[in-house]
Amino acid sequence: MKNIPVVMIIFGGSGDLAHRKLYPALFNLYEQGLIHDNFAVIGTARRPWSHEYLRGQVSDAIHETHTEVDENDVKDFTSHFYYQSHDVTNVEHYVTLKELAQELDDRYSAQGNRLFYMAMAPRFFGTIATHIDDQHLTGSGFNRIVVEKPFGRDLKSAEELNKQITASFSENEIFRIDHYLGKEMIQNILPMRFTNPLIKNIWNKGNLKNIQVTFAERLGVEARGEYYETSGALRDMVQNHIFQIITLLAMPEPENISSEAIHKAKQELLESLIIPNAEQVKKDFVRGQYAGSDTTFAYKKEPKVNPNSLTETYVAGKVKFERGPIADVPIYFRTGKKFKEKKNRIDIVLKHINTPYGQAYSNNITIEIDPKSRIFITINGKKISEEGIRRENLDYTFSKSELAEVPDGYECLLHDVFVNDSTNFTHWSELKRYWMFIDAIEDAWQKENEAGNPDIVQYAPYRMGPTESNHIFESPTEHWIYE
Ligand code: BG6
Question: Within 6 Å (CB) of ligand 1, which residues are found?
């Protein structure tokens, strides 16, 4: 693997994301030789850490995520880390940062390449982008920036942030990260759709009854009440992860598998995304909040949550496109906190057919993303030694050893940033459409809230979310496959 020279600057170097995800992922890329001798990482944050302290933290992060490591490798890897105490609003601090980056560039022969990573509270993204620009932090080689979610909180703020970032970076240098696009089973959707005649040929309105995307979590908001109050399930999960998955499920076949062709096909689809009006929002969307029980707090009682909060911890809804291979097929989604279990899955439901055997089951194709990586297709066959039809699963499950080979989503995506492959990142044209859809729902909800009749249901924790979501289906013969 090619050794890529670079100076990487992580804004939010003392944070949870850097510790849990970025440092272990970078270490794996170092072990593979993608970054090796010619790289330096500057971690920045407000805390007054030293280089040594950061190196200790990076070493801890590696030991917490790896069972066996070569201590010499850890030592060499962490020696490439530098810490710069940094107040993102202080212009002078960018001058110091720029000098340090240049010094490290010389020391490690990084060829003027810079990689910026925004891994801190999103309210600072715009400020950082502005100062990268006005203090000319970009290098003389390649320049790339990775931006964590959320990218704005509505279309207007996303446009503003995009303007700030595009002052220094062009669209192909901006990597808007969505960690779901780094998941193995999500990356499997397009190959599965377009390499199997069995699947490709039925992927149309004539054969598909609906598609159902469920992203369920057992955890509540935990310590993230403050952030979550500004977000809610719709912005936290639907605007990004769920919409990207829906796009992969509904997009037309790309001309080839280059990043350009894939984004082009996505864009083509998204131009035909149907934006719901207030009436449709009322009918096709359900918002909910988890209630409490003997053993667990209600959302409203979580730390840093407004006791009268109208923030949704659950949302279910319907998406449709006017064009594309499954134009007009309803795509239902639901996501929520405090479900009975962690489960991310996609159910593709085929229409029933008339059979000479009488009533048979329809086929469903299920893609399970978490906790297992698995695809299974329900299939009908003859009952053994008796009349009638039975249903079995055709199963494509990852073995234990295959699972062990699957890299973490962040490792995969960071790798892509280093090799300049933006296939699995969100393009501005996609993000824009997603926000248009989300804004329509948020506006309708806001109006209900202001009129004093918010339609938000409370749901029992550790079950399947509010039963009201059973009413969003277009026909009485439809229901959630995963129950
Ligand atoms: C994040 C959300 O983007 O995704 C969290 O902010 C959520 O609220 C998380 O818990 C779920 O990700 P995963 O990979 O654990 O399914």
Answer: 217, 236, 344, 370
Distance 201 CA to ligand 1 centre (A): 33
Centroid of ligand 1 to alpha carbon of 39 (angstroms): 30
Report yes or no on 163 lying in a domain.
Answer: yes
Half-sphere exposure (Cβ direction) of 221: Cα atoms closer than 13 Å:
29
**Residue 106 falls inside a structural domain:** yes
For tokens 């979590």, what's the residue? Answer: 217
Catalytic residue from among 86, 93, 241, 427: 241
Domain assignment of residue 254, yes or no:
yes
Instruction: Quote the ligand 1 centre to 61 CA distance (angstroms).
Output: 20
Q: With contact defined as beta carbons under 8 Å apart, do 328 and 319 qualify?
A: no
Closest-CA residue, ligand 1 atom 4, reads 237
pTM of the model: 0.96
Model pLDDT for residues 91-149, shown as the tens digit of each residue: 999 999 999 999 999 999 999 999 999 999 999 999 999 999 999 999 999 999 999 99
Domain stops at, among 149, 176, 203: 176
Q: What is the pLDDT of residues 236-262, one digit of tens each?
A: 999 999 999 999 999 999 999 999 999
| Domain of residue 461, CATH code | 3.30.360.10
CATH number of the domain bearing residue 67: 3.40.50.720
Which atom, in ligand 1's list, is nearest to the CA of 231? 6
- For the chain, how many helices (H) and strands (E)? 18, 15
Catalytic annotation present for 66:
no
What is the rounded CA–CA span in Å between residue 98 and residue 96?
Answer: 5
What is the complex's ipTM, to 2 decimals? 0.98
